[in-house]
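Journal club side-thread
Mid-discussion, someone asked how the predicted structure for our own chain would compare to the paper's figures. Pasting it here so we can look after the session.
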Amino acid sequence: MRQRAEATRLRIIAAASAQTRRARSGFEPLVSVHESARNRCRADLPASQALNLQTADAPPTLEPSTEKSTLQIIEINDAAGAVVHPDWLARAEPVHRQLRPQIPADYAGALARVFAGGGRMVLAVQDGAVLGVTIWRLNAKTVTPLEFYIDDLVTDERQRSTGVGKALLGWCEAHARTLGATLFALDSGTQRQQAHKFYFREGMPIQAFHFVKPL
């Protein structure tokens, strides 16, 4: 049986080669050479081998890609604080309000005041959606020459524990070093215990208490 299959395979190759030469000489369309050679030899094969010969030449089925695009970091402000991506600023509002629901209804106006006071916004985006929001600023203080302070750091609640917060925090730390900051700091509400675990893992221990009094 094995010798017969091998002989059939050799006849297929020989027939295909002969037809290729005839096609190039104008006697037979080249596109049909190999298919016609296989058709003539399939009758000599057992049914199971003929089926394998038929399906072996079928093109592979390609599954639709489910891969997401790379996470991108977008700076909303230029060096002077002006908004250079107002469309992305508007898209950031729903995610930002998950952390700061008290922001006034005029979101753009409220953020304009933050930017005028030195705040800057950075977004983590993927496939046209905002997944995370950060507000940061530089502070000259007596405790350190230059502090890189994070006002807000929030990941969309549907994207928690997917690396978005880590990407934003990593970008901020790298940017802080570029700007010459000597301290990297943020505050986190006492109720946000899961966030605290994240900051501990990122090498940010608690070094002070933050006392507040509403006015």
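Post-session note: The first strand starts at residue 72 and ends at 75.
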